[in-house]
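Per reviewer request, we include the raw input and output of the structure prediction for the construct analysed in the revised manuscript.
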Amino acid sequence: MVMSAQGPDPDPRTTPGLEPGGGVSPGDTPPDSSQTFATTHREPRQTRKMAVTWVIIVIATVVLVVGFFLAYLIVYLVNA
């Protein structure tokens, strides 16, 4: 299969206005190229509060379920 799509960066040999080495003349606008970041400001750090909360909820649920079955087992054994 032959790929005919070009990459996001322009070919310097066919881009008008580029000087040797890929630079542009003063006051000239460089050609568009791909970017790695969409924003210029720093992204806020993500906190782990939600993950810790979910771990506590899951552990509490497991403890309650195990406690329920232990209580049921004790009642069953006492009445047997």
